Amino acid sequence: MNDKVAVVGISCIAPGAKKYSELWNNLINKKESIIYTKVENAEKDSCSYIRVSGDIENFEKIPIMGIKEEIIPFVDPQLNLLYTLVGHAIKDCTGSIYGKERRTGVFCSSDSSFDWKKSIVLPKHLQNSYYLKEVSYVSENQYYSSMISYLYGFTGQSVGVSAACASSLAAVHMAVSSLLLGDIDCGIAGGVSIQLSHKNGYIYDERLIYSQSGICRTFDENADGTIPADGGAVVVLKRLVDAIEDGDRIYCVISGSAMNNDGKRKMGYTVPSIDGISEVVQCAMDIAGIKAEQFSFMEFHGTGTHFGDCIEFTAFTETMNISKRNFCAMGSIKPNIGYLEGGSGIVSFIKAVLSIHYKIFPANIHIQKLNKDIKIEKSPFSVNTENVFLRSKRIVGGVNSYGDGGNNVFVIIEEY
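Now predict its structure.
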């Protein structure tokens, strides 16, 4: 029990979902929340402009208290979303995260604020060194974790996590590590992504991972990429013994997590590595004391690129090198809501947490014919196109995330 961490609070805002209960309902009802956008712009009439969007519309923001009134119009929407998600996650907890000697740490990620900063036009009276610095605190993502600590009064370590698309799941791993080391008593972990440039669609470029068809078909033979989307999620974590003492509702338990980097063991900087993914999965399994045959489901990074899906599947198949076949469901949330860049890992984590909580692993959508290079019949995995009811005596799941530059993160969760 002393080496386990409890998930005691969750929040999520994603395309088609203003809270995690709506996200869950969408998933189990096999709903896609990517929307077709109407764009009236001559520059965007070419066939390379893909009119789909994973936008989040009119989420209910918690008013930010503690920032100078004249600065509020220049708060990056990502910080606003992160602040709101932290508030919702705290409210979701049944036990307190506050206390005279309780150190709450913040480990959060957000994507580049370039889109937001280039849209800011400061009035003349704010164009001086003092106010430029004040604006930077609410419009540059290096400050967002410490800003959350300041606004909510948290006294544990406060770290901005930057690991490309693996950032938000890396934040979970770092919070878990700090809890088990005794550096903090409660951890706030998660990530957000809002990119204004993708609000009405995107221009297809074969060198990028975005879909030409406008549909994310993870694991499918016709997979041609993913859809950029906005949103994010936050979790509240405690050591299991403390969560029990505090009377918390425990969604699930994190029994192991690991993070590594591919180094040069791959074809290029942005290409995932079989060896890197395989090693991080094995490391987390060793930490958790979990064997391959104990897994009920695996939530893949699953971007919906033909090559990337095959690499990830191969890495997991090689790691779970056992004769037992097709016992572990595998899935990806990205066909449902799109790709939240650095916020994608934590939303996948929320899906996995809720899968254990409700004992259902949601169906994969947009699969008509399985990718021919995914040899599913010779693997431990199955690709479920219907919801799977999890009936194991001990439900165990895994969540995988990787990012450009080679960071790999794998987290193992299980039923409490």
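The two ends are 11 Å apart (CA to CA).
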